[in-house]
Amino acid sequence: MTLLIIAYFGGALTILSPCILPILPFVFARAGQPFIRSTLPMLIGMSVTFALVATLAAVGGSWAVHANEYGRLAALLLLALFGVSLLSPRVASVITQPVVDFGNRLLNASGKPGSESTAANSFILGVATGLLWAPCAGPILGLVLTGAALQGANLQTTFLLVAYAAGAATSLAIALLVGGKIFAGMKRSLGVSERIRQVLGAAVLAGVAVIALGLDTGLLARLSYAGTGAFEQTVLDQLHDKPEIQTSSEVASNSTVSAVVDTTQPFRSNLPIEGAAPSLNGAVEWLNSPPLTIEELRGKVVLIDFWTYSCINCIRTVPYVRAWAEKYKDQGLVVIGVHAPEFAFEKKIDNVKKAVDDFEIGYPVAIDNDYKIWRAFENSYWPAHYLIDAKGQIRYHHFGEGNYRQTEQAIQDLLREAGSKMGATAPVTPDAKGAETSPDLKNVRSGETYLGYKRAASFVSPEGLHADAANAYSIDEPGLNEWGLSGTWTVGAEQAVLDQADGSIVYRFSARDLHLVLGPRAAGKPIRFQVTIDGKPPGTSHGADTDADGYGTVTSTKLYQLVRQSGDVEERTFEIRFLDPDVEAYAFTFG
């Protein structure tokens, strides 16, 4: 029920987001119509269609993508007819009689005198609008789609998507009711109903043209990247049960953590008890340790770290987890990394082993390829930290990057509660390098971008994205947060694969750091590449995996840091050109 409420409010906030703009002309074209007979059926049709298509997108393959493309084409034709009939009934009457009859039956609420809107017509119009709705993947919708990808198709996913769509429909309905009152007042005072109808018709046709030409993604990408993400995350934080650390023994600052300890009686932390720790059974393999169980860890304080090795947020958290494991191992802390893969290549145990070596991780790592531990903890995030006390109870958790000082304070509290005589110490300050360095959040205007068609967005190569088929692409000058391909590529569900040498990926970004998850299609085959920024070698702005001339080599499937701007962070055009074929490109991340 909590997740349904979260999804509903997340959808309600969508009206504040740029992603709702393409469908607003079609919705506000119903202003002034009876709400029960006209507006409500349209919003229901839009919500139901979105939930169905989003469910298919979450769990389907290329067939669902193609089905949605055909649906969009049909919707565009239908809405274009609607716009023409709004703009000029005389023009509409010139169209062949069967089409006119169908359009009039379907869209007779277009403002023609004497026409009467029906619930069925409005519902079908809502279906068409729903096919055009491509909502932003904010934290809430991302949570739903991630759950679908990890747990497979189920009714819960569909219910959550319906709740998300219902929230958006509610906010649209409120806006439409307010808009309807404004429109009615204009009609009474100015007598310009015909002009209003024509303006709405022009807006509908303009919206159809923008979407048909693929300009909507470019326009939305130019708007603030943050969008409503902060609003949605606030709702998520408020509704998700996330107890705060409230300890009377804690005195903290930005640089030190100290504790007032009463030595006359055993220390008791004020951290709440969140429930018994679930089982650690289900890992397909354990690294750096034999399999561990919650039962045999009684008496120890356990930190569970859910991560996956190509996730930039996880990579930036690893130095802290590694430092905690080393600093507190003699005080009774056991750190366990639970590796739950996001991409298929992260399920390969040899890849995980190499990543563990590269990150110099010495604590136990459970390879949770089947997500059994993930589901046991009811987890939904990378990274996620859970602290388990000496009695086997979860006492603290934190999702995402940051909060390092509070997490370390919680570790110290639970260790003292377990009997450790440790004194107050300053928090760890790990020596992070390369991609492990903390992000420059104040200058980040670009966000995670996937190259596989399952989650691709803002793709602007004029040829369009062709799923699971080799195709020649080209790209000129993308706008901010737009990207494209050059050369012959096969775009799969998760990754884009270069079929011939001398292919490129171009991205217009604004951030200090640019990372790209890359790998060779054939294991062990190195792939050479060169990076340029605004057409020039990066020089001092090269990343950890490139040199000053922009050259580097893909040797394994992992996240590569390709750019770290050394001066002012500005909008830049990034290009990576591969000198050899068979590279696999998965996702951009920024910092």
Structural description of this entry:
The protein is an alpha+beta fold and about 600 residues long. About 40% of the residues lie in helices and about 20% in strands. The protein has 16 helices and 20 strands. Strands 10, 11, 12, 13, 14, 15, 16, 17, 18, 19 and 20 form an 11-stranded antiparallel beta sheet that branches. A 7-stranded mixed beta sheet has the order 3-9-8-5-6-7-4, with helices on one face. It has a two-stranded antiparallel ribbon with strand order 1-2. α1 runs parallel beside α9. It is globular and about 80 Å long. The two termini are about 35 Å apart.
Short description:
The protein contains 16 helices and 20 strands.
Average predicted confidence as pLDDT: 77
Can you tell me the residue ranges where pLDDT is under 50 for at least 5 consecutive residues? 58-69, 99-115, 134-140, 148-153, 216-262
Cα gyration radius (Å): 27 Å
- Which range does the strand content fall in? 15-25%
Q: Give helix % range.
A: 25-40%
Give the helix/strand class.
alpha+beta
